[in-house]
């Protein structure tokens, strides 16, 4: 199980370098393009959920998978970029 967790985290970091895999749907969910199929990610008060098997497998460990890890990192980068743009606009 430990190796599965390590492998999942490595793949999540790899996916995080590919923001084109992530799309926001009209209903507010995220669509993540995995290597084999699309996955649906949703955000609730409890955090991210994903419809993949790995998410269910790691549910007892807090519920996470490569898709939720990557999405979180991509969204943080987007938010940081937006904040920098907003700051630049305020300075001018």
Structural class estimated from helices and strands: alpha+beta
Given the structure, what is the number of helices? 3
Shape assignment: globular
Radius of gyration over all CA atoms, rounded:
15 Å
- Number of strand elements: 4
The string of secondary-structure elements, in order, is: HEEEEHH
Mean pLDDT over the full residue set: 82
- Report how far the terminal alpha carbons are from each other: 53 Å
How many structural units, i.e. domains?
Answer: 1
Enumerate the spans where pLDDT stays under 50 for 5 or more consecutive residues: 83-92
As laid out across the biggest beta sheet, the strand order is 1-2-3-4
The residue fraction in helices comes out at 40-55%
Largest sheet: 4 strands, antiparallel
Could you tell me the strand content as a percent range? 15-25%
